[in-house]
Amino acid sequence: MSDSVRATGLSALMKGAGLVTRFIPIPQPTLLVGPGSSARLGQAIAGFGHSKILIVTDSIISKLGLLKGLTDALTEGGARFVVFDEITPDAPIPLIEKAIDFYKEHDCDAIVAFGGGSSMDASKAIAVSVANPGKSLRQLAGYLKGLRSPVKIYAVPTTAGTGSEVTVAAVISDPETHRKLVIVDPRMVPKMAALDPALMTGLPPAITAATGIDALTHAIEAFVGNWKTPYSDGMALSAVGLIFENLRTAYNDGKNLAAREKMALASTYAGFAFTRANVGYVHAIAHQFGGLYHTPHGLANAIMLPYVLRYSRPAITSKLAELAVRARVGRAEEPEDELAEKFLEAVEQLNRDLGIPTCLQALKEADVPELAKAACHEAHTGYPVPRYMTQEVCEGIIRQALPPQSAPAKAASTKPTPRKRKAAA
Predict the structure, then answer these.
(1) According to the model, what pLDDT value does residue 25 have?
(2) Domain covering 203-424 in this structure, CATH number
(3) What is the pTM of this model?
């Protein structure tokens, strides 16, 4: 089958899937926003009559005492809870299975996801699994594989990036295949979420940067993809505007509560956008980096975003122009081509200002073909990409992220504007 025929067929398939997503009801959580909102969430949960609540988090958050506002409120409200604080980045299936056993051992009936994307995703996977005991996590991967509704989830994100507090998906790691598995179920959306900027003031600048560009990637890919709706466009544009206005401030002045709160809102808005409109090649490639090299997801997205956008530009010029205006890097009366270029340059400059590297130190030339093959399979069967890539083209784009010592002598095409190369570990 020729690439043009394959692209046409996949385009028709994805267009049909996109029409379906317009009509699937997607719940939206009640949002509590502002300093101290995690304690207010605890007060609310305590009144819901749960027999015992499982708090899912990581050891760093637990040791830093960030749970205190929530747990004090739960205790004061008479709610019983236990804490599982062993979540690691890209939580693997065996660890999630351990948390599932912990949930059952303590007879819990609700979950609070407290932390970054890994804690959110692990919580969602636990919630689906305990409600569908006849299926393994691998069997639950895919769309609506659980017959029974997941147990109730509440969320307290401590980074501004994933938007998982409002999304329908959970991404987990399969150590046997070194791939990411995605569980999708609208019933996994948390019932309530607290966007508490006070919990984010201690984030290191590097994490602030990577998670912030993760949110930007969600918003951009939702906006330029082929499943966009007026609702997703509004959420995506709002997120892009907030990120360009506040991410540098949050990066340079982590204690700035106003900037942290705006970034938390931007992450949530971007989550609303890509839940409805989905993502694209940036995520498809980033997932492969995460599966093989355990690259943090936000960092992988940040590295690949400029390269993929420049490749996609011929198909999305008008959309890039709109983004430029919302990001305040151009004026609406300027020519679309100029605005599109201004936005691409603004993304690259933002990455530079945040210390985002242009290449991935772990990336090896020998891995590129398989990475591209897996990325194309993921994108072409799940994402409404605006400009089709063959595997060969995808390989060339991934090679742009090779560290200097590994890069082929001949430069790949579709490069972004040259900039000083920095490698990520």
Answers:
(1) 85
(2) 1.20.1090.10
(3) 0.91
